[in-house]
Amino acid sequence: ALERTFSIIKPDAVAKNVIGAIYNRFESAGLRIVASKMVHLSKEQAEGFYAEHSERPFFGALVSFMTSGPVMVQVLEGENAVLKNREIMGATNPAEALAGTLRADYAASIDENACHGSDAPESAAREIAYFFSADELCSRTR
Ligand code: CMP
């Protein structure tokens, strides 16, 4: 099915100057970027985005890292976009990520793991709405 998913290029990957290289991975896999912007998240924005993890032991480090520098946030559209983006990213822990995935190529650790992607269509809808209004989505089908 034609889907949308939400993606973040995290501060470590922005600092490594690989935004374009990562966008090329999305496009080469048949995903289209239908919205995109650079933002430096506030503590409140990062805490709100990751609210489901607020009780996890890594929450403080996660918020601290995600506010340490600018990120790119984007909406990707295409067939099975949620799963396709997760395959492009590889496992959350780069030590477990398959060769050729974003995490294997660009991530240093599970905390600084280069990118985020929605885990299901429902979370994608919520995460897209957290950063973009409907009129900011330039879908091919609009
Ligand atoms: P992300 O997909 O952005 O969602 C939450 C982030 O928390 C995750 O990627 C990891 O970067 C980070 N994290 C740190 N430790 C863990 C862990 N043990 N399990 C899951 N995520 C973790």
Element layout with pairings:
Blueprint: E1 2-9, H1 11-15, H2 19-28, E2 32-39, H3 43-49, H4 59-66, E3 71-79, H5 81-89, H6 102-106, E4 115-117, H7 121-131
Antiparallel strand pairs: 1-3, 1-4, 2-3
Bound molecules: adenosine-3',5'-cyclic-monophosphate.
Tell me what you see in this structure.
By secondary structure, the protein is α+β, with helices and mostly antiparallel strands. The protein contains seven helices and four strands, in the order E-H-H-E-H-H-E-H-H-E-H. The protein has a four-stranded antiparallel sheet. The longest helix is centred in the C-terminal third of the chain and has 11 residues. The structure holds adenosine-3',5'-cyclic-monophosphate. Major role in the synthesis of nucleoside triphosphates other than ATP. The ATP gamma phosphate is transferred to the NDP beta phosphate via a ping-pong mechanism, using a phosphorylated active-site intermediate. It catalyses: a ribonucleoside 5'-diphosphate + ATP = a ribonucleoside 5'-triphosphate + ADP; a 2'-deoxyribonucleoside 5'-diphosphate + ATP = a 2'-deoxyribonucleoside 5'-triphosphate + ADP. Homotetramer. It holds the Pfam family NDK.
How would you briefly describe this protein structure?
It comes from Psychrosphaera saromensis. With 142 residues, the chain is of the alpha+beta class.
